[in-house]
Amino acid sequence: MNKTCVLASLAVATIAGGIGFATLSAAEDPGQAPAAAVQTDPAKQVTIWRDPGCGCCDTYADYLERHGYEVTRIDDRDFDKTSVSVGIPREGLGCHLAKVDGYFVSGLVPVEIIERLVTERPEIAGITLPGMPSNAPGMAHEKSGTLKTYAFEEGGIAVYADE
Predict the structure, then answer these.
(1) Integer distance in angstroms from the first to the last C-alpha of the chain?
(2) pTM of structure
(3) Of 4, 50, 94, 150, most Cβ neighbours within 10 A?
(4) Residue 103 and residue 112 in contact, taking contact as beta carbons nearer than 8 Å
(5) Are 75 and 112 contacting, i.e. CB atoms less than 8 angstroms apart?
(6) What span, in angstroms and rounded, lies between the C-alpha atoms of 97 and 61?
(7) Integer Cα distance of 157 and 127 in angstroms
(8) Three-class SS of residue 22?
(9) Which residues pair with residue 47 across a beta bridge?
(10) Is 93:114 a contact under the CB 8 Å cutoff?
(11) How far apart are CA 148 and CA 157, in angstroms?
(12) Where are the alpha helices (DSSP H) in 28-157?
């Protein structure tokens, strides 16, 4: 092998080794969190318990995802019983149950109302939009018209939003 080839090979090996060391050093830097450890804002994480045959629940989950939420869908044919067990009045059940940043949300509640809930942080268990209103997200592409959402807690229910 001639001297130029040997020197070129050493130069390439040295550069490659330096790049490898720099990459390894950066990956082991304790000041930098690994990409997998980056957490989504809890106010943007939603778990939905839904009847697996309900198409509007999937449409609603897609709506939340379009608005920046990370949605986990759980098939639960008894979501209505689960909903009652967390305090939602039977007459106030929506078509699925969700949990967002510590609050229970029942039904096709618009994003603006959810964002108001997690920003204001009232001392309630959650909110519900009863039934399956045709103008609610999940039934319609986006909310249209007025929807009445109720707050619920151990002491009862009250109107939370009428907009």
Answers:
(1) 81
(2) 0.73
(3) 94
(4) no
(5) no
(6) 11
(7) 9
(8) helix
(9) 72, 99
(10) no
(11) 12
(12) 55-66, 79-85, 111-120
CA nearest neighbour of 156 among 113, 106, 92, 108: 92
Asked if residues 130 and 91 have their Cβ atoms less than 8 Å apart, the reply is yes
User: What would the two tokens of residue 100 be?
Assistant: 């967002």
Strand order in the sheet with 126-128: 70-75, 45-50, 96-100, 103-106, 126-128, 148-153, 156-162
Residuewise pLDDT in 10s, the chain (163 residues): 444 333 333 333 433 344 343 333 333 443 444 444 455 687 899 999 998 888 888 999 999 999 999 999 999 999 999 999 999 999 999 989 999 999 999 999 999 999 999 999 999 999 999 999 988 998 877 777 899 999 999 888 999 999 8
How far apart are alpha carbons 83 and 80 in whole angstroms? 5
Instruction: Name the one residue in this structure whose structure tokens are 């090996």.
Output: 13
Token look-up 């305090």 returns 87
Give whole-number Cα distances, 27 to 15, 16, 37, 99, in Å: 18, 16, 13, 35
| Burial tier of 125 (Cβ tally within 10 Å: 0-12, 13-18, 19+) | middle
Q: Is the CB of residue 96 less than 8 Å from the CB of residue 50? A: yes
Q: List the structure tokens of 90.
A: 């039977």
